[in-house]
């Protein structure tokens, strides 16, 4: 049976690289297995969800190269959740509770003071009808809790292997708030069941939810999907990511000039059995994804590794892919291919190309320490047309005439031609700079 998976972010912020890990695990799994990838927006929290964040999520996924086969929003599906809640009420699994957050907090502290686990004591289940009526007459409205069955909840996790959670260690979860709105727990199960989700691949911060949700699947008579809880990306110091850390948002990384392939490689391969390396092709990345060998330890990553991955991707990028983007930087198409071949090995980000184009087009402030040497070299410049062999031919001629060689010869020429002591191989750059500009620069003129 072809798998159906989903990525289910809340549109309450921008996706960060840790969210990208979950999204990619799902999308790549579907891609490799010939399955379906659903984007589900968990937007039942209407106070914090916004259409702008929802649009940004779709856009950021597109940038990563992920195209959902289907997109749904929970806010369009409330009737399904109402029906499920009604069934759970009817079967006695969903019960009203009236405690205020304050009362619950006081109770929790008392339990902790007595050395007891802070598990909800189910006082609401012991209320009589008369007591409930009295509370409602006071103006209290109930929230609704799911009555957990006692005993162990077990599943075989594709990442973590055999898992088990004792239901007695958990509070009966609140599924419906006082105002009738749903917390995430029930809608997620209803959707997973209704959409035929076969595999729930998500972060290990959801392990406890899974125990609860397995009981809800059973209470609704729905088949339980396979679960896979992957480790979470953390910074090198072990700090978790949050949507507040805007600089690791996908759009922040994109604005900083990182390639989606670099971000995807880091997001997927960190904390896996594979070495972290640049894999720009999502099919290849999908082949490397092996849930059974995702580490149990936190997936620590260093954002600086992105630079190296990015450079690798740029160095391997062919001209056809680079050309439209070079055009967007203002580099004329007629010369862009030769330029790309000349500079790509020196770029960390594609946008760095703009600075090298300025070196080609000028004006460059040349550095000429020895004007006599520069004049002699200028006199030996071959006539145009120039090609990839010109730089060497010219260098050989200057060497033969003046006797300098190696760095003593090439560094002053580079400083005069580019104003810099480092940069791409001049074999590629010199023909782009051209004879006229080269002559002026050798004379020490800004050109
Ligand atoms: N909206 C939930 C989250 O962002 C989804 C969790 C899940 O995949 O079930 O954490």
Tell me what the structure shows.
By secondary structure, the protein is α/β, with parallel strands linked by helices. The protein folds into four domains: 4-81 and 182-232, Rossmann fold, CATH 3.40.50.620; 90-152 and 167-176, Alpha-Beta Complex (Glutamyl-tRNA Synthetase, domain 3), CATH 3.90.800; 319-361; 371-442, Arc Repressor Mutant, subunit A. The chain is 46% helix and 12% strand. It has a three-stranded parallel beta sheet. Strands 4-5-8 form a three-stranded antiparallel beta sheet. Strands 6-7 form a two-stranded antiparallel sheet. Helix 2 links the parallel strand 2 (36-41) and strand 3. Helix 1 (17-33) packs across helix 10, helix 3 (78-90) packs across helix 6 and helix 13 runs antiparallel to helix 18 (426-433). The longest helix is centred in the N-terminal third of the chain and has 17 residues, at 17-33. It is elongated and about 110 Å long. The N and C termini lie far apart (66 Å). The model has no long low-confidence stretch (mean pLDDT 96). The site of glutamic acid (GLU) has 8 residues, from loops.
